[in-house]
Amino acid sequence: MVIFVARRLGVMVLTALVLTFIVFFLTNLPPNLEKLARTEGSVRMTDEAVASWIEGNGHGGSVFTRYSEWLGIAPGWVITDEKGVTRGRCIDNGVTAEDAPRFCGILQGDWGFSTFSKEPVIAFLGEKLAATGWLMLFVMLVMVPVSLLMGVLSGMREGSRTDRVLSSAAIATTATPEYVSGVILVAVFASATTGLSPMLKEWGWIETNTLFMGTATSAERGFTFWNFGLPVLTIALYGIGYIARMTRASMTEVMTQQYIRTARLKGVAFKDVVMRHALRNALIAPFTVIMLQFPWLLNGVVIVETLFNYKGFGWTLVQAAGNNDIELLLGCSVVAVFVVLVTQLISDIGYVFLNPRIRLS
Length: 361
Fold this sequence. Notes:
The chain contains 16 helices and 2 strands.
């Protein structure tokens, strides 16, 4: 197991370096740097002034050198202008040139300065990640139990009426993207002119104009069922259908195994056959799928947080891309790569424990 984990960690480090370098290269293309120079300087800057700004702010030179500086394995850039003022990557944060460290990349905890939020990237991104973390937690609490229950009930009796109904619902939710289901939910539950809210208001069942709130901005100050329910449901619906289908397929395969038939022939109650023999083996494949939902959730929150104006990681990524905030985009890429690789590692380790055949091999 130690060798297995060590090998996986080595692959993770190599994959992280490759992916972050690709993102660094794409975000630091000359057109992006020119746009950043004109945004931070002036839109009327000449080409010579733009080139001078790029060079004077550490964006010149080889992309490999700049990537090493950003990563923190090479000394940060230092430039002294014609007035004798020394500036650098490690000097800009109120630190003098004499007291500045030589290395100040992401490995040292310096993720750069956001031109959008006007504060350090790591502080701003940490706050937004916490907001998205709560959203992902509630989504998983809704999505996992419901999807597993639907999949197990469908797979227990393949071809039954329950199987057909639940499978149809799972296919429908999986085929509906978040931006469509989000708009539908808002129109049905959070509109003062359409859906259920006008009728409930007329009947006196609700005091406000809408049953749910159409935006989740107030959830940043405190979560309630009414201001956080629609974003959670929007993200969970797609994942529920996908996990339920995978669970059903796994459960159906397990229920046809010989040891299940033997247990039934011995007179073991159907409930005990499912709970004691079939369920654990049927959950091996869904476990991997559930762990891989975390990277997917990062993509889902981009749409949902923008739709419901919830200022989390997805909203931050959209704002960073729209405002050409290179440092913030790179910080978001580091977080996304870390989440994907760590969840895959946990999935591989958990799969080994759940499946003894892999552990023995």
